[in-house]
Specification:
This protein has 367 residues and is mostly helical. Helices cover 66% and strands 2% of the residues. It starts with 13 loop residues before the first helix and ends with a helix.
Length: 367
C-alpha cells in the first residue's frame, strides 16, 4: 500500500527523521548533478529576469526602483511615480539594497548594470534553492523537479508594474525555511527566519509552518512545546523586522505605513479591488490571474491526492493559513504578495508526483 493517509503520524522523533518515508532523513546521491542544477536554474533565471525587467511599465520605473534601494538604506523617503513617500513597511527590506550598494562601490560598471546583474543573481539563487529543495525534499526525479521549476517560473510571471527586488530572495529564503522545517531542524529554521527578516516581513510565516507541522498531534490536540517554538519563530522574526526598520528609518517607520498599524486603511482596498473588477472586468483582472496561478499546481495536487503524505498535507494547510494571514495586508492586483504560499503549494505538488512515481515503481516490481 503506497498511500500515506492524512492520519499518519507527524510526531518529531529521531526515528521518524531517518524513516524511509522522509526524504529529509537521508542524503540522496545528487552531488554529481550540480552542472544540471546550475544549467536549468540559470535558464529559468534568465527567463523570469527577462520578463520582469522588460515589462514596459517596469522599464519606465527602473530608475526610481534603483533610487528606492538607496533610499531604504538612507531611511527614506523614496520616489513612487515622482512623489517622495514614506513607507515604513519597506524599511526592513535591506538585503538587496546592501548588495547593490556594495556592488555600486566598485569601479567597473554602472549602477544600472549592477542592479540588473544582481537581479539575475538573486533569480538564479531562487531557482537553485528550489531545485535542491524539490530534489532532496521529495526525492523527485530530475524531470519532475524540472517541471516544478517550470511551474515556479510560471508563477513568477504573474506580477505587476513595479519591480520588487525582494521577490527572488523571498522565494529562496522561503525554500530554505521550508527545507529546515520539513527536516525538523528547529534552530536552522529560526536562523533562516531571522535572516529572512532582512528581506521581507514574510519571514514570520516560518513560525506558522512549524505550528501546523508540529504544534498538533495526529488528532489535532495541542503540543505546547512545539506551539511555543512556532510562536517564538514568528515573534522573533517580526521583532527583527521592527528592529531593522528602527535602525534604518528611525521610530517613525515603526508607526507610519507599516501594514499592521494601518490595517484599518488597507482592508478597504480588498473591497475596492472587488468592486473595480465587477465594474471593469478584463481577461487580465486579478481574479483571472489568481485562477491561472492556482489552476496548474492545484490540478497537479488533485490528481495525486491519494499519494500525498500526512506532512505534505499539513504543508498545504499551512499555505492556506499563510494566504489568509497575508490577505488583509495584500493588494489583490499584486499576485506576488502570495508567493510564500505558492512556494509551499509547488513543493506539495512535486512531492505528490514523486510519491506516485515511487508507488507505481514498487507495484511494477511486485508484479
Amino acid at each position: 500500500m503506497c498511500i500515506a493517509p492524512l492520519g499518519q503520524s507527524v510526531e518529531r522523533s529521531s526515528a521518524a527523521a531517518t524513516s524511509s518515508h522522509s526524504p529529509f532523513g537521508r542524503t540522496p546521491g545528487f552531488r554529481g548533478e550540480l552542472a544540471f542544477a546550475v544549467a536549468i536554474s540559470g535558464a529559468f533565471a534568465v527567463l523570469v529576469g527577462f520578463v520582469s525587467t522588460n515589462l514596459n511599465s517596469r522599464f519606465e520605473h527602473r530608475a526610481e526602483t534603483i533610487q528606492q534601494q538607496f533610499a531604504i538604506l538612507a531611511g527614506g523617503p523614496y520616489p513612487i511615480d515622482g512623489v517622495f513617500t514614506e513607507v515604513g513597511a519597506y524599511q526592513n527590506r535591506v538585503l538587496f539594497p546592501l548588495g547593490l550598494e556594495a556592488l555600486a562601490g566598485l569601479t567597473a560598471g554602472s549602477v544600472g548594470q549592477w542592479y540588473l546583474l544582481l537581479r539575475l543573481a538573486t533569480a538564479f539563487g531562487a531557482f537553485l534553492t528550489a531545485w535542491y529543495l524539490l530534489r532532496r525534499g521529495t526525492s523527485a526525479r530530475r524531470m519532475v523537479a524540472a517541471v516544478g521549476l517550470g511551474l515556479l517560473a510560471y508563477e513568477l510571471v504573474f506580477t505587476q508594474g513595479w519591480e520588487h527586488p525582494t521577490d527572488f530572495p523571498d522565494v529562496a529564503l522561503t525554500g530554505l525555511w521550508l527545507w529546515a522545517a520539513m527536516a525538523g531542524r528547529r534552530w536552522g529554521l529560526l536562523a533562516v527566519a531571522l535572516g529572512a527578516a532582512f528581506n521581507r516581513e514574510s519571514a514570520a510565516f516560518a513560525g506558522v509552518l512549524w505550528l501546523v507541522l508540529y504544534g498538533f498531534t495526529v488528532r489535532w490536540t495541542a503540543r505546547l512545546s512545539e506551539l511555543a517554538f512556532g510562536i517564538l519563530v514568528s515573534v522573533g522574526s517580526y521583532a527583527t523586522v521592527l528592529g531593522i526598520r528602527w535602525f534604518f528609518g528611525g521610530s517613525t517607520d515603526l508607526t507610519h505605513n507599516t501594514n499592521v498599524l494601518d490595517l484599518a486603511g488597507t482592508l478597504p482596498r480588498l473591497w475596492e479591488a472587488v468592486t473595480h473588477f465587477l465594474e471593469h472586468p478584463t481577461p487580465w483582472s486579478w481574479p483571472v490571474l489568481m485562477l491561472a496561478m492556482v489552476a496548474l499546481p492545484g490540478l497537479w495536487i488533485w490528481v495525486n491526492r491519494s499519494y500525498i503524505g500526512a506532512r505534505e498535507w499539513r504543508v498545504l494547510i499551512a499555505s492556506v493559513a499563510i494566504l489568509l494571514l497575508s490577505l488583509p495586508f495584500s493588494n489583490l492586483d499584486e499576485p506576488r504578495d502570495f508567493m510564500t504560499s505558492i512556494v509551499l503549494v509547488i513543493f506539495v505538488a512535486v512531492a505528490g508526483e514523486a510519491a506516485r512515481e515511487r508507488c507505481v515503481s514498487v507495484n511494477a516490481c511486485n508484479h
